[in-house]
Amino acid sequence: MIEKAKGETAYLPCKFTLSPEDQGPLDIEWLLSPADNQKVDQVIILYSGDKIYDDYYQDLKGRVHFTSNDLKSGDASINVTNLQLSDIGTYQCKVKKAPGVGNKKIQLTVLVKPSGTRCYVDGSEEIGSDFKLKCEPKEGSLPLQYQWQKLSNSQKLPASLLAEMTSPVISVKNATTEYSGTYSCTVTNRVGSDQCLLRLDVVPPSNRAGTIAGAVVGILLALVLIGFIVFCCRKKRREEKYEKEVHHDIREDVPPPKSRTSTARSYIGSNHSSLGSMSPSNMEGYSKTQYNQVPSEDFERTPQSPTLPPAKVAAPNLSRMGAVPVMIPAQSKDGSIV
User: Fold this and answer.
1) DSSP letter at 189?
2) Together in a domain, 100 and 119
3) Which of 48, 84, 172, 293 could serve as a FRET partner for 338 with CA atoms 20 to 30 Å apart?
4) Cα separation of 124 and 306, whole Å?
5) pLDDT tens digit string along 286-319?
6) Are both 96 and 49 inside the same structural domain?
7) Is the pTM of this model over 0.70?
8) Residue 11: CATH number of its domain
9) Where, by residue number, does the polypeptide cross the bilayer (predicted)?
């Protein structure tokens, strides 16, 4: 039986001695009977006709080799490199040289070294509390042995703890400051070991009530702040909605109403512009009726006596309106222009 760690190289010995009667060709064959009994025996390497064939078994291809360059010298041993858990099984070496035949069986066990070991405290590291010191390897073949050791102030280690120093878990009851210090845990099996360190500080109990109250106050303040933000957002949305509604109610295409004074002035301005463009030749076509249509509120008339003949009417000061002043002729009683 051979035990090796995963990833290592296993040397499987197979030596033979030929007798004078053995005159036939030399054949060497290695077989593997896997640990799983459901699988049939597999040829992993073969020597026949002075040639080596090592590609029979896919799982071991490139990882199995003869150790000797001269197999006829009596050494048919092999090496299996980079061992895997699938390599576990019974290996058989068969040597044939007619009429002689011999064989040998070797059981190979592949183990995993302890690795990735983690040390930690399960519980609260406070005076008077109960907690556990745990040592857990990530991987490692059984059986595993554990060994705890306190590296600092080991002389103060309580006697109740000494009985558990070979266990993966150390239970601490009613902790005191004597437990504080640095601990190491070593995990071992038949093919290797691994170690981890742990720093333990047993401290006075914390003010849990104050911590809880602070957390509650913080949560309440956060809720108030969130509510204020939501209120401001809703208020802003309502204001924007109101502004949009008011904006849609005002019709921008309706002009504002004009006053009577502005209408009359516009009317006089348009008529004065027409008079300024008239010549004496076309004055006869201009009727007195049109002139009398000008609103009286913007036109100052000179008071006349009913017995006096009509006087010349002075044209309004059009220079203020940007037009050239024109004298308006008056008519006598017989119809002639004065």
Assistant:
1) E
2) no
3) 293
4) 124
5) 444 444 444 444 444 444 444 444 444 444 444 4
6) yes
7) no
8) 2.60.40.10
9) 212-233
